[in-house]
Amino acid sequence: MFILSLAWIFGIANHYVMEFKGNPLLPSDLLAYKTATAVAGNYTFSLSDSMVYGTLLFMFSICLVYGIPNMSKEKTRHKYIARPLLGIAWIGATIAIVYNVNWSSVLDITLSGWDPQESYYDNGALLTFLMEVQELSTTMPEGYSQAESASILNEKEQQIAESGDADTNTLPSVIVIMNESFSDLTVLGDFEAEDCLTNWNGIENYIMRGNAYASVIGGGTCNSEFEFLTGNSIANISGSGYPYQMYNFDNVFNLASEFSRYGYETIAIHPENRNNWNRAKVYSQFGFDSFLSWEEVEQPEYIRSFISDKSDFAQVISSYEQRTSPVFIFNVTMQNHGGYDEDSMPENMELISIEKGYRSYRDVVTYMTLIRESDKAFQELLEYFSQVDEPVIICMFGDHQPVISQEFVEELQDFEGSSLESIENRCCVPYIIWSNYDTGVNNLNLDTSLNYLGMNVLEAAGIYSPYSRFLTDIQREIPIINKYGYQTSEGEWKTLDEPNEILNQYSKLQYYMLFDHP
User: Fold this and answer.
1) pLDDT confidence of 238, banded at 50, 70, 90?
2) Are 61 and 7 spatial neighbours (Cβ–Cβ below 8 Å)?
3) DSSP structure class, residue 262
4) So what's the pLDDT on residue 36?
C-alpha cells in the first residue's frame, strides 16, 4: 500500500510538472517545493482521462491489498522485535546498494541533458529519477588542480594591471533587470501579430544588445540568476540541479560582492515571496546590503495576481533616489510569470491581435499582451534615467522563454538542422545594456549567454576582476554556452559531449571558484 501510494503521488506530481514546465519531475524540483507552492495558484489544475483512470486503478489496488486476509501466525516477543529490525536493515542495505551502483555504466545508458522527457520514456521514470538523484552530487573535473586554477587567475590579474583597462573613477550606478519570461517569440518562426516590443526594438543608443541563451526553458529562474550573477555555467553542473538549493555561496565570486568592493550599495528587489528559490538565504550569502520583496513595494499595481513591471520599476527608481553612494540594483520581476489564463487579465486591457491561424492559442495572446506592458514600462524607465545627471548603466534580459502551447511552438519551428539547434532556439531571450553616458562602447550587436552577460555589465562599468577577464577572453572563442551545448566562434552548435579544451579549462576554474577558492 505504501509503494502504491508513492507511485500514485509521483504520477500526479509528474503530470502537472510536465503540463506546467514541459519537463518531467526531477529531483531538483523537490528541492524547490516552496517556490512551486507559492505560484501554484496561478495555474489551472485540470483532470485528464489518464489521471482519472489511474486514480481509480490506484483506489481499486488499495482495496484489493487491504482485503488480503492476514495469514500470519502467532509471533513470539523475539520475532516482534527481530523482524522489524531485519526489515529496516534490509531496506537500508537495498537503498544503499541501489543508490551507489553506477547505473549509467551497468546498463550502458545515458541521460538526455536537453530532453529529460526522452530519458523518462526510454529508461522508465523510476530508473531515470534515481540516476538524476545520483548526478546531483558534485564531482571534481578530471585533471583539476587548485594550483593551476589559482595560477590562471593570477595571470589574468596581471593582464588587467598591465592593460590599464580598469576605470574606477566614474563608478556608474548599475541597474540589472531580469525580467520574468521576457522573450521575443518571433525567434521561433515568422507569424503576423501586433508588435509587442515596439519600444524595445526602437532603442537606438545602447552599449550592447542581442540574444542571450539561458540554460532553462519555461522555469528554473534561479539558474539564470546563478549564471548571470556568478559567471558560472549550468553546463558545468552535473544533473538537473538548482545551485541556489544545493550550494553555500558565502565565499563565491558574484556581482554583488564585487560591486561592494568598490563602495557600491547593493540592493536586490523581487516583488514576490522573498523565500522563492531560497533567495533570502542566497542573497545574504552573496553579500547584498538589502533585499526588498513584495512587502516593500510602495502602492503596488497588479496585473493578474502579480505586481506589474510598472510598479516594480517605480520601486527601482525609489531605491535609486534613496542611495547615498553608487548603487548596484538587481531586480527580478514577476509580472510575466506562467499561467497565461486569458480570464485572469484585467477587463480594461486590450489584448494583442494575432493572425487568424494562431488566434486559438489564447495563452500566446495573453503572454504577448503581458510583454507589451513590460515594453511600455521599460521605456518609461529609460526615459526617467535619460534625464538623470549621474552616470547609470541599465541591463535588462529575460530569464527564459515561457511555457506556452507546444503545438504553437512546433508550428513555428522549422529546423532542417539538428535537434540541438531546435532546443537552443527555445533558450533564446533578448537582452540590452544601455547607459545615459558615453562608456566608450556603442551599439555593439552580440549574441551571448547569461554566464557572460553579467561579466559584460561589470566591465561596461569599468570594473575588472581576474574571473571576469577570464570569461570575457574565452567568450571570443566560445561566444555561447549553456546546459544543452555551445557555439563556436564560427557559429557552429555542438553538444557538451564534443571535446573542447577551453571548456575543460572553464569547468575546472568554475569548480575552483565554487568549492575550492581559499
Assistant:
1) confident
2) no
3) T
4) 63
